[in-house]
């Protein structure tokens, strides 16, 4: 219990560090809750987020809580990950680069009873972070120029506690219960060179506190002692969030300095979408593992607060024309020549993955960006005199986010995760 308490303290410290970080510079994070985070651990990221059908005894797979029942009975696993990325933004021949580094996750897991595993941790849900401007002229005579400035920060995080149980051989169930919290602060500023024109600024903010519940199922079908298939399924509850959204409109006369502000408050303004996932993993002698995942996030039925100004008649209300359902397909796998081999290179886990996700945003009546990503990585065993079970997970990922009508983003990301796997529960026998 003392060691478990130390791990919890480490996780709380990591949580406090993560609260001050933003994992994106994307202009697309100005919409909805922000850019959706990659909610996977280090070994999943080498396969580009694959994992609904995976059962690992030495890794925490919180994508599907049913997998917790496979955790080794002698170990306590603590896994923490960070990432660094370089993103190229391009639109109409103009290109810009941005660098970013952020905390990704911290999770832990151990076997609670026979065929019952427990896991807990912190993972991001969304990230908000952008700062850019546009400029032009109000009229054709180019006597009055304008500058629009867009800024935003924030995001949502979640801490979870999950259980996985195997009541029947090869059949496992699991559940993650999460507390989700965070905020977003966004602003749009309009300024003009003509001093007689009022400058206008819009400020959007929300402070969100809610829960999340996700269920998991895994069914393993052994064909023989060397080959098996595991089928996985997940379901995340969708529900209303009883938190308010706020919008403040501030008009400033640059000549007189007079300011006029109007604040709109919209109650019960948010909702989490239902999430449905299915996956399959083929396992050959615990050396070759290939899998495919499909995930559906039902954003189309999720409203979001929108400010509109129609000929001086301003409204701030919920709109269901903001999102569409998001479909994501992932294929990948892992190869380890010999997990217990004496040769170091044979103990390395070689991973790859590719994903495609459809647009889920609707921007100015048009489909937002789709996403194509590819990853490759390694699980490198840490071998010393007292530990040969811990793993250093390193992966590289390329993500292309683009739309026909909007900005294109190409991101190169390095993910680093360290899985501490210790024999905490071994009982020594003296004769």
Can you describe this structure?
With 431 residues, the protein is mainly β. The protein contains two helices and 23 strands. The strands form four sheets. A 14-stranded antiparallel beta barrel has the order 2-3-4-5-6-7-8-13-14-17-18-21-22-23. Strands 9-12 form a two-stranded antiparallel ribbon. The chain has a two-stranded antiparallel sheet with strand order 15-16.
Keywords:
single chain; 431 residues; mainly beta; 14-stranded antiparallel β-barrel; two-stranded antiparallel ribbon; 2 helices; 5% helix; 61% strand; elongated
Please identify the structural class as seen in this structure.
mainly beta
The geometry reads as elongated
Radius of gyration, in angstroms, nearest whole number: 24 Å
- Percentage of β-strand residues: over 45%
The run of helices and strands is: HEHEEEEEEEEEEEEEEEEEEEEEE
Question: Uncertain segments of ≥5 residues (pLDDT<50)?
Answer: 1-13, 15-20
Q: Trace the largest sheet across and list its strands.
A: 2-3-4-5-6-7-8-13-14-17-18-21-22-23
Task: Please outline the major beta sheet.
Answer: 14 strands, antiparallel, barrel
User: So how many helices?
Assistant: 2
**Helical content (DSSP H or I, runs of 4+):** under 10%
- The termini sit apart by 27 Å
Mean pLDDT: 88
Work out the number of β strands: 23
């Amino acid at each position: 219990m003392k060691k478990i308490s130390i791990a919890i303290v480490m996780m709380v410290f990591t949580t406090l560090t993560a609260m001050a970080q933003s994992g994106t510079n994307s202009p697309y994070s100005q919409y909805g809750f922000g850019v959706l985070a990659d909610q996977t651990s280090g070994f999943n990221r080498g396969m580009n987020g694959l994992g609904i059908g995976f059962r690992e005894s030495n890794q925490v797979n919180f994508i599907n809580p049913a997998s917790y029942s496979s955790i080794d009975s002698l170990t306590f696993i603590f896994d923490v990950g960070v990432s660094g990325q370089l993103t190229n933004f391009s639109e109409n021949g103009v290109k810009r680069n941005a660098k970013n580094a952020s905390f990704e996750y911290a999770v832990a897991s151990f076997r609670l009873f026979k065929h019952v595993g427990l896991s807990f941790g912190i993972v991001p849900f969304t990230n908000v972070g952008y700062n850019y401007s546009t400029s032009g002229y109000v009229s054709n005579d180019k006597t009055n120029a304008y500058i629009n400035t867009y800024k935003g920060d924030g995001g949502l995080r979640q801490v979870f506690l999950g259980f996985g149980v195997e009541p029947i051989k090869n059949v496992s169930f699991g559940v993650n219960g999460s507390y989700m919290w965070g905020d977003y602060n966004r602003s749009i500023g309009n300024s003009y060179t003509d001093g007689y024109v009022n400058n206008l600024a819009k400020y959007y903010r929300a402070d969100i506190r809610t829960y999340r519940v996700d269920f998991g199922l895994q069914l393993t079908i052994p064909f023989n002692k060397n080959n098996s298939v595991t089928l996985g399924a997940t379901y995340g509850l969708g529900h209303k969030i009883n938190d308010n959204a706020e919008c403040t409109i501030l008009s400033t006369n640059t000549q007189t300095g007079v300011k006029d502000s109007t604040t709109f408050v919209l109650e019960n303004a948010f909702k989490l979408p239902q999430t449905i996932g299915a996956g399959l993993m083929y396992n050959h002698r615990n050396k070759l593992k290939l899998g495919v995942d499909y995930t559906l996030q039902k954003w189309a039925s999720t409203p979001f607060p929108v400010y509109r100004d129609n000929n001086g008649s301003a409204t701030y209300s919920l709109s269901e024309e903001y999102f569409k359902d998001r479909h994501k397909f992932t294929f990948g796998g892992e190869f380890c020549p010999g997990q217990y081999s004496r040769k170091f290179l044979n103990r390395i886990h070689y991973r790859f993955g590719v994903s495609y996700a459809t647009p889920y945003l609707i921007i100015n009546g048009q489909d937002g960006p789709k996403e194509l990503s590819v990853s490759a990585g390694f699980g490198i065993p840490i071998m010393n005199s007292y530990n040969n079970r811990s793993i250093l997970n390193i992966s590289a990922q390329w993500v292309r986010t683009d739309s026909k009508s909007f900005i294109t983003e190409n991101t190169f990301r390095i993910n680093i995760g360290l899985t501490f796997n210790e024999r905490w529960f071994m009982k020594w026998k003296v004769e």
